[in-house]
Amino acid sequence: MSGSAVGPAEADEASATTMPASPGVVVDVDEAGVPLDRAADVGEVGVPHAGRAGAGRVSGMSASRAVEASAGFAVETFGLTKRFGRQVAVDSIDLAVPAGSVYGFLGPNGSGKTTTIRLLLGLIRPTAGRHSMLGEPMPRGAGRVLPRVGALIEGPGFHTYLSGRDNLLRLDAADRTADRSTARARVDAALERVGLLAAARKRYRAYSLGMRQRLALAATLLSPRDLLILDEPTNGLDPQGTREVRALISSLARDGATVLLSTHLLSEVEQICTHVGVMHLGKLVAQAPLAELRAGVAPRAAVETSQPDEAAAVLRRLGLSDVDTAVDRATGVLGDLAPEKVVEALIHARVPVRGFSVLAPDLEDLFVSLTGEGFHVSG
Question: With 270 labelled, which of 156, 179, 180, 363 sits at a CA distance of 20 to 30 A?
Answer without folding.
Answer: 156
